[in-house]
Structure formats: structure tokens, C-alpha cells
Amino acid sequence: MSAVKCRSCGGDGLVSFLDLARTPLPDALVDPSDDLSAEEWYPLEVAFCPDCTLVQILEEVSAEKMFVDNYHYFSSFSDHLLAHSRQHALGLVSARGLDGDSLVVELASNDGYLLKNFVEAGVPVLGIDPSPGPAEAAVKAGVPTLQEFFGIDLAERLVSEGQRADVIIANNVMAHVPDLNGFVAGMKVLLADDGLITVENPYVRDLIEHCEFDTIYHEHYCYFSCSSVDRLMRRHGLWLNDVEYFADLHGGTLRWHIGHHDERTDRLRRYLADEQALGLSSAHYYLQFADRVEGVRAGLRELVEGLRADGKRVAAYGAAAKGAMMLNHAGLDGDLIEFVVDRNVHKQGKLMPGTHQAVRSPETLLTDQPDYVLLLAWNFKDEIMAQQAEYLAQGGHFIVPVPRPAVVA
Ligand code: JHZ
Ligand code: ZN
User: Fold this and answer.
1) Atom of ligand 1 nearest to the CA of 175
2) Cross-strand pairs, 165
3) pTM reported for the whole predicted model
4) Residue 318: CB within 6 Å of ligand 1?
5) Domains recognised in the chain with CATH numbers
6) What mean pLDDT is predicted for residues 279-289?
């Protein structure tokens, strides 16, 4: 049992079930001119709260350090995510009858990848995001954005200025806030009486079932299920009303619909009942996970070491946060993986945290033609492999690390 208290309910019975050892911050790409010995590493341990079922990490690195000083993630580099977001936005405009008198607020609006669709439809928006690079890109793209962290203080300030949101969207951000209760309390205050909140986040059930342990890192304080979100919302006078599932987004994503009123769809009832039946609400569900993680880690190392022993050259695709985690957990340094490619121009020219491979453009795969490419951004497998048809036609191969290490092409 841990001395740390639950981030949601404050319970003091957290049960630790996975120790991922010390790791660097996954988005803290290193500038080649930086002093490499100054890189910061932090312990990373994951626990389950038997009181409210929330899975969470025990270490707390400051949000400023992760999201203001070291954040190069721009949502707009995935066509799949852009299409998913556009569909979400257009769906909301018609389902909620949004027009020029409405207000849509997005928390962690990044580079405006989603809100730009409402702007095009003539619906007023406000983006909120603390990361300077993405927030500036959003403003340039015509999406009004406050470069700040969201919480109860900002929500109260906006309401005092006369703003209430008809729709609040929080995609891949609820896991990223150290003060989870302050964040949810802020949504409660900002939401108009008949408003709708949608929250998307990878599903902890998929994380466990598909061994997606590389999505556990310091930026993600929490790992959600319907059951843990249900309890969290109720504490703040909000109600989980419905849930949707997207199997091909970030390894399995849920979108929760939340409002001021106690209404539940049958679909939501089914999810809650399934989680109960599967045991997600008990520590037992998580106890075998550490052994399975070790199996993937060791299997991947063995696969890559075997290829290197045969004289093959191996590179990787995706300077993603999960990519940095996988390289570091599996100890895949520059001797095993030569370089990493990524189409985010803000990451190119930098070095991977911890393992220090150079990040290059995806075109390098064609000019350099390594024999194998480890697909660190496995969540975009179809999109990336389609783009790399020429590399494959020239005899290249792809490896995926999870759910088990395998050569897939
Ligand atoms: P990607 C992100 O995690 C960020 P990460 C964040 N921490 C989060 O919570 C989760 O998502 C859900 C590149 N790429 O999105 C772009 C190509 O080069 O899996 C990215 O650098 N070519 C907020 O960082 C990386 O791969 C492509 O064709 O683990 C993918 O990173 C595509 C599609 C992507 O997330
Ligand atoms: Zn708890």
C-alpha cells in the first residue's frame, strides 16, 4: 500500500501494481546542444484505488515542466485524428443546434485542430491550452485561445465575465491534470444549465487487455474507466449520461457524455455492468499486468537484438510520448535503434528523451532504407503504413511492439 492519497476520492488505500522504474519525461525531447547529463528522470509507479476504482500514478511532476516548458505535441499531424475531430464537431453542431449565439469551449485545445471546425460553421469558440507552441498556432489559425491551465479559478473568472459554455470538450486532457477535482469543479461551474460536456480518453480496459503500458507516463496522472469517471463526476454534481467507444483511436478511446442531470442511456448501463463483471473495480484485475509488461519488454528486446545480430539495421517511427517510453523501458538505445522519424517538424532535429536517437523526417526511411522500422506510434499503424507503401515496396519491414512484439510487414 502507498502513502500517497487517491487523486480523485482522497482514499488512502492505493494498491501499487506496476513499477516502471525511473524514466525521463516523454515529451522532453532534447536539443542536441543541451547538456545531456542535466536530463531529469523520475520514478514511475502505477496504483489502483479500491475506494473509487481510479488507476493513477504515484509520482507527481509539475504540470508547468511538462506542458509549458517541454511540449512539442501538435494534434494536427494525424489525418485520422483530424477526421475524427471534424466528425465530432459537425455532429455536435447539428445534434445541439449550435449557432452564432452558442459557445463551445475546448480544454486543451492544442493547435486548434478541433475548434477550427466550429469556427468554419460560424459557432463562437474559446480554446484553453497552457502550451505556448500549439496555443500560438491555434491563434494564427483563427481560433481564439487563452494560453492558461484550466481549473476552478479560470472557470469562475470566465463566468464572472458573463461566459457560460453550451458545450465543453475535453479530449485527452482529464488524465493530464494534477488537480483532477479542481478541473471537474471548473467544468461544473462553466457549463450552461442544459449544456453538454464530452470527455475523451484512452480506456484503461484496453490499456490492460492490449498491454499498452507505453501509454503510462508522467503526463498521464490517471487512467479512466466508466466506473471511475461516474464516481468522479457525481462528487461534483455532474452526471455521466452516455458513452461511445472508438476502437481505433489511441489504442481504444471512450467518449463520455456528461451533464447537470441524472440520465443514463442503456449503453452506459451496459458498460458499467460489464466493468463490474470483468472485475475492473477490484485490484485483482490489475495484478497480472506487471508480468505481461515484462513479457512484452523482454520479447521486444530479444527481437531487435536478434535482428542486429543478423546485421540488420533498425530505425523507429514516431517520436511520440509513448515512443520515448517504449525505447526507455526496453532499453533500446542508439546501438539497437539508429534513429527515429516523425512528421512533426517541431520534433525533427531534436533527440529522443533518455535514449538520444536523432529525430528525422519520414522521408529518411526512403533515402536511408533501414531493414526494419519499429512502429512506436502503433496507434496510427494503418495511416502510417499506407504512407510508407514505397518503403515497404523497396523491401522494408515494420515491427509493432504491442499487444506483443511482431513483424507485421
Ligand atoms: P501520438 C499523445 O501521445 C499526446 P503520444 C498526449 N500525451 C496524449 O494524451 C495521447 O496522445 C492520447 C507522429 N506521426 O499522437 C506525430 C507521424 O509522424 O500517438 C506524433 O509525433 N506521422 C496528449 O505522443 C506521433 O507520430 C503520421 O502519419 O504518444 C504520434 O504521437 C502520424 C499519424 C503521426 O501520441
Ligand atoms: Zn479513489
Assistant:
1) 9
2) 191
3) 0.96
4) yes
5) 15-62 (no CATH), 75-286 (3.40.50.150), 299-407 (3.40.50.720)
6) 96
